[in-house]
Amino acid sequence: MKAYRYALYRRTRRLRLALFFVLLGWTLVEVLRIKYTLVQQSQPELVALGSEKIYITGLHWNSELILRDAWIAAVVDLANTIGRDNVFVSIQESGSWDDTKGALILLDQLLAENDIPRRILIDYTTHFDEISKPPTGQGWIETPIGTTELRRIPYLAKLRNVAMEPLYELQNEGIVYDKILFLNDVIFTTSDVQRLLSTKGGNYAATCSLDFSKPPDFYDTFALRDAEGHDMLMQSWPYFRSRASRQAMKASQPVPVSSCWNGVVAMDAAPFYQHPPLKFRGISDSLAKSHLEGSECCLIHADNPLSREKGVWLNPNSGRGCGSGKSSRAEIWNLGLFVL
Fold first, then answer.
1. For residues 230-257, average pLDDT
2. Which of 84, 190, 199, 243 stands the most exposed, by the fewest C-beta atoms within 10 Å?
3. Distance CA 312, CA 266 (A)
4. Using 50, 70 and 90 to split pLDDT, how confident is the model at 138?
5. Could you tell me the domains of the chain?
6. Residue-wise pLDDT tens digits, 186-236
7. Superkingdom, according to UniProt (predicted)?
């Protein structure tokens, strides 16, 4: 009996070792294949900054540290590179309790010194002020305990639409933009934005960068859905469940996705000029009562008619670092480092 058990143990051990070496060999082959693909990949031709008119917009709340550390300087450099005749900067601040307002006033001054057209909107309405208002119209929900609360997504959608208002005011003056560039409170460079704008030769409904807070883990997953509409399979590379999305990521090619909203997002401006214009929104209050929610940053792609025609893409070669403080600078990784 002991001899039989010992023989069984040895066979099981050999099978485990064989399986281990098969998996190890498969992993090494996969890593070498991906490394070869990255090495052989030619650099895509970049769209020249200034060849398109770019409308830059973003929301800020309690983001003073990253604004002063990196974001303000990056926006000024980007706007100057694009050129004052081809750029507009529209920033919406709302209810910050740090000195985000002061930082954005500094941004306004620096843009003015460089003669960059802009609107920096400082809103002194606090969140407490908003929730203290009597409920009116859409965007409120009754809770199980009988109170009525302001829904976050419709509120953010409203702020994003406010930040888009100068686009239409400028259209009335005969000024029309080619791309909308949404900048979150992330660390980026002008070359990062140029690579993103050059995704698919500039022919896309939308394209997004990658977000990293603690590399190699992906950061902003709330609005990201793969080519088949699934959320992320994992937070580490290659992230996606859909075969089409995974294969593109492994090849370091633009990744087809259903929606994304990461550190930096570029969109074709045309749908925002259509009638009626593309706008940010939340789901209805009646759906929200059923404990459902949908990000305004997902819904914008679902509503965008160009999403089906030109596609929504994630650019794996445009990765951005999230966070504040000087240490964040070291957290901007190149995707290639994760697999080499």
1. 82
2. 243
3. 10
4. confident
5. 54-314 (3.90.550)
6. 999 999 999 999 999 999 999 998 876 555 566 566 788 999 988 775 666
7. Eukaryota
